[in-house]
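WARN retry 2 of 3 for item q-0093 after timeout on previous attempt; input resubmitted unchanged.
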Amino acid sequence: MTSRREFLSVASLAVTGIVLPQLAGCGSNAPPAGPAGPPAATPAAGPMISRAIPSSGEMLPVIGAGTSGSYEVALDSPAYKALEEVVRIFFEGGGRVIDTAPMYSNAEDVVGSLLEGGGWRDRCFLSTKLVANDTVPFQEQWANSLRQLRTDRVELLSVHNMRNMEEAMPFARDLKEQGLVKYIGITHGQTSAQGQMLQLMQDEKPDFIQINYSVNAPAAASRLFPTARDLGVAVMVNRAFDDGRLFGRVGGRALPGWAADVGVTSWSQMFLKFAISHPAVTVVIPATGKPDRQADQLNAGHGELLSAGQQEELIGMFS
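OK item q-0093 returned
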C-alpha cells in the first residue's frame, strides 16, 4: 500500500499533457448517486478534459468505458436497447475510449454491433486484448476479435494479465508494424501484479499499461505511475470503483464539503475524479449499462481536478 507521504509526493507533481475545458468566449457499474442527489440526466456541456498519449501526442478524453459485465448481454434484449442509449450518451458527451476483451463473454460482439448500428466506429478509440489460451492461437483469436468487433483494426491491443508475454508481445508488435493496431499495451487488475508490471514496462516499453487504481487501492501512485511518466507510457485505469464495493462503503455518507468546488455531485464522479487527478493517468474506464449512470460518469471529466490534499483526504476516508 502506498504511504501517505509517497502519495502526496507523487500527486503534487505538475500536471503535464493535460487539456482543460475552456470557458465559452473565454470491470463495475455505478449505482445511483446517493446523498448528493441523483445523477444528471445529461453530461456536462463543453469539452471534456483530455490528456496526451505520450508515445504519439494523440489526445484522449479522460473518461472512457469498460465493458466487462455491463456489455455481456443478448443482442435482442432490453439491456442491449439500453446500451444503445448508453453509447449515444457516451459519444455525444465527448467519450472515445471503449475497452473490451475476448474473455468478456460476448462483449466484443455487443460492442461491434453498437458501433456499427450507431455509426460510432470512427469516433471510437477501440481497445481489446490478447488472452493466453491453450486452445485458441493468437492469430485465430485476433481474427475472431476483428469479426466480432466488425472492424479491420483496433487502436489499442494489450496483452491481458501479462501472460505468455514471450509470444503475445511479438505478435502484437507485428500487428502494429502492419498498421492493424495503433498502440500496444499490457494489463492487469490486481495490486499484487504491479511489481511485475513495473519490470515489464521497463523491459518492453509498451505504449499503454492498464491497472487498478482507486481511493482504497492507491498503490500504483507510489512507483508504477511515476515510472510510466518517465518512460512515456500512457495509463488506463480499471476498477476505480473496486468492482462496485466502494459504493457499499459510502452508504448514506455525504460527499466532502469541498465536492461542489470541483464540480462533483455524486460518489461515482468523486471516485473517477480521484483517478484522473493523478498526472500520470490518461483515461479511466468505468463500466455501466445504465444511461443515467453513463451521463453521471462523464461529468467527472469536467471541472477542477482534485488537489493533493483532497486526494489524500479521500484515501484516509477509505483506507
